[in-house]
Amino acid sequence: VELAEALGRQICSVPSAQTGDATPVGVGWCPLCASGGDALTLVSRARTAAHTALRHGGGSAESYVQTSPGRVRTDDRTRVLEAAAGARFKLLFQPMVALRYAPDDRYEATPRLCTLDGELLGPRAFAAIVLEAGQASRIDEWVLGAGLDALRQRLDAGRPVQLHLHQTCDSAAKDGWLDWIHEQLVARDLIGLSPVIQFEVADCALNLDLATRRARDLERLGIPVCLNGLDGEEQSTSVMVRVPAAFVRLSRLATQGLDQGEIKALVEEAHELDQLVIATGVEGPDAIARLHLAGVDLLQGPYVQPPREEMEFDFAGTESSDHGPPVG
Description:
By secondary structure, the chain is of the alpha/beta class. The chain has 13 helices and eleven strands.
């Protein structure tokens, strides 16, 4: 707090280039434990606190104030469901860089929920609440529609990409879901540029027969499937073996927690099933070298690029070969 307030005083002491007067500054901060595990949520909550500080005159740093433990669940649920009902979503894109030959530029699209009080929440903070309320299909419909619109825009600009779009088994279980996806593709003339439909491994484990059936149905439509959250445990491995998929994504815990030999064994099993392996949570060059030696196909994480609102990653600025990791 002292550091934040000292920083605020230093900024306030700098005269404005236009007026020559000091510029009012609000300084806000948010503890990591209140971030919901998401960097963008952390920043948005610190920004909320900064606006509060500015309204109070900017003389001191304000901390993001969490609701008391007894009310946090009710308040969070209300805010999330209100925002979801208004479809206050924003789609962010994170690139996947190929360690081995892969001709397409690839992104994962993930939604953020914009609450009425200005916070930007990641899926970890809102997905369970929306699912519990039976509103998962609301997010799925928005994500698919917004993602396909983004694909169409890239195609019109002559810069097609492969885009991974999240869906849940809750939506996939509905009658007409496949027809609806096909209709959305036809409406945007995207039959030749289908997205990758991504399911969570944990979701598939609870709905294994449905997930297997839907993955085969999507495959017949020319739509690849990605299984997200592979951790090396028996349950997730059984999903990988049973559900036909073109891609599997290692969970962050697997990428950062398993040793090279364990990852290599998991990758080899996926390759035997003709699946490309994506490693997420990559935070430095040491991790890249370790994952390359383990045979991982694609990298994703903050070291490559954090999620952003635009698909503007310079894939041409990386080199990929079978002899070493990509070099920027």
